[in-house]
Each structure stands twice: as C-alpha cells, then as structure tokens.
C-alpha cells in the first residue's frame, strides 16, 4: 500500500504585480528581471485581515470540490509555510477551521522552499502506515508580507500563492515511492530573516533597519541550490534504477529560471519534461511545487514517473519520486 496523490488544486490571489509595475517602484526593468529570473509577473495578496491561511483555505476548498471529498473526511492537514498568520498557533489548524475539517489535526513545517517536499514525504508515511486515511498537504506563502520593495535583489523574485494535494492509500503500485531529504544549517547565514525570532526579538531599531525582510546572498545560494537539487535527484534515480529517459516529469522548485535550467541541464533531462511556471507566479516558496502540479495536471498521466526537487533557506533540499495515480 502506497500513499497516492488523488487530487491537486492551486490558488493565487487575483492582484498581479507585473515587471512594468516594479519599474515604477525600484531601479529595475523588464529585460533585467526576465533575463536573470525568468519572471514576468507575480500575484500579490491584498486586503485587510487576510493572511496566508486564507490562500491555503481557498486551495483546500478547491481540492475538496475536485475530489468530491467532504471536509469531515480529512484526518490530517500539514501546512508548509514560513509566513504563517501568527507566530503561533500554527496555520494548519487554522486552515482546518476555515474549511470545516473538524475531524482533522494538523501542524506546520517550516523548511522554507523545501517545505512542501518535506511535508509531502511526512504525510505520505503517515498515510502509508495506516495512521491516517486522508491527508491534505498544503504549501503556501505570503511572501509579499516579508519583502522589502526597495530591494531589487529580492522584490522581483517572490510572489504569493498556495497549492494543496490529497493523499490516500492505494495498492495500484502508484504513489509516493522514495525520497532523499537533506539539510545543512550553515546555510542559514546566506538566506534568512535576520530578526523577529528569539535570537533577535522585535525592536523598533531592527524594524527600522529592515531586518524583518528576507535577506539573500545570491551567489552562494545559487551554487548550493544547483548542487543540492542535482545531487539529490541523481541519488534518487540511482537507487530506484531510473534514468533521464525513464523519467516523465521533473518538477523543480521555481526559484529562478537559471537554477531550473542548470539543474535540468546537469541532469540531462529534456526541457519539455521540466515543469516551469515561474514566469506567471515568481517564487512562491512552499507553494511552487503544488502550483506546478496543478498547472500541469492535465498533462499528467496515470503511471507517469515524476521527481520533485526543491532547495530552501537553512539550507534545506531534497528530491521525491512518485508515480502519478490518475488521468485528468
């Protein structure tokens, strides 16, 4: 018995921030952004009283409708996010309340851009073991809430969005097969939010200094991302006797088109097998992988061999191998 994905749904807020809009806000231009990141626009959550749980709830509601599942049937919700509504309580139980999943328990996983990957592997093992029957894994981030829109090195990259998948047990031979998960805490110096936690508690001074915004040192992050994602996919393929020709789809974290192309190129995977939607959404952090699955759902076929891979701040990275379980 394996945990299979029985449905997927994505959600992005309606407001769009284009490269032309950013040209009016910071010293940049469309050619510079597209050539370096591949991003043409990103969606931004606007409105009083809205948080990341609202985007996640919309994705979950869509998922329940698509899979003809009542909210009361859900046993577990895991939410991957670095932008929870509040420091505590967790987003997952807030989402459960908003969608009416009254029989579910939940918790959040904070692994930055690798959060959905980590969460999917965790939930799959719980479903496979029989501990829960139906699990929902949500990847969501409200990145515009922690971005400095005077910093062109970060503000052009990130967007807001959410995606969710349903996991159930099945004996068809499809489902989540294997995963490689890695981490290196020394990477925390290159990609982080400097203040707001227990190490540097909120003060007027560090708020004024902008230390509650995302900080990224691009070069070491780029190098580590390409190396980490490529190595984890290679390890996964080797131990599952896969090769680049037997893989139907590579689903890479949508961080930067140069990273996506470098990983696909080093692995030798044909570009048409690599899922890409960064041009539409930017980097939605924990939301990128499920949003890719949602966008490409109609092209996925039952039995397709799919590898997901991600890299995030911390550093965190890994790859997951699954066989798709249904035709749309």
Describe this structure in words.
By secondary structure, the chain is an alpha/beta fold. It folds into 2 domains: 2-172, Thiolase/Chalcone synthase (Peroxisomal Thiolase, Chain A, domain 1, 3-Layer(aba) Sandwich); 176-323, 3-Layer(aba) Sandwich (Peroxisomal Thiolase, Chain A, domain 1). 32% of the residues lie in helices and 25% in strands. It contains 11 helices and 13 strands. It has helices at 19-23, 30-37, 52-66, 91-99, 115-129, 152-155, 204-208, 218-239, 257-267, 278-281, 288-295; strands spanning 2-11, 16-18, 41-43, 76-80, 105-109, 134-142, 160-170, 175-183, 191-193, 214-216, 249-252, 305-312, 316-323. The strands form 4 sheets. It has a 5-stranded mixed sheet with strand order 1-7-6-4-5, with helices on both faces. A 4-stranded mixed sheet has the order 8-13-12-11, with helices on both faces. β4 (76-80), α4 and β5 form a beta-alpha-beta unit. The chain is globular and about 55 Å long.
